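Many introductory courses stop at the sequence. We go one step further.
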Amino acid sequence: VQLQASGGGLVQVGGSLRLSCAASARTVSTNRMGWFRQAPGKEREFVAAVVWSGDVYYADSVKGRFTISRDNAKTTVYLRMDYLKSEDTAVYYCAAGLSLSDHFYSLQDAYDSWGQGTLVTVSS
């Protein structure tokens, strides 16, 4: 497995979780790293990304509640999720890409490697 995601689980509305995603192979390009999610019966959607420059981007639905960060080696990305809502329930996928561009970070095609997904369930 080249990207290993962890940290999912069951949490109550208003609670917090931190997801982690580590690149386990040197062949994985991690110039940009991002998180996507897929709720039951819905398409996979962009959540957050950190690009080569260090700039971070968020979907409007999570802005102000989620924080993406990465380690200095740029091989691990984190997603801190606060003030969770029931609509945040989904399988969360991490992704990594080669591109040094700050563009297209929200597109799934802009990433080359994907993790296996970790389930986040927010209960009311």
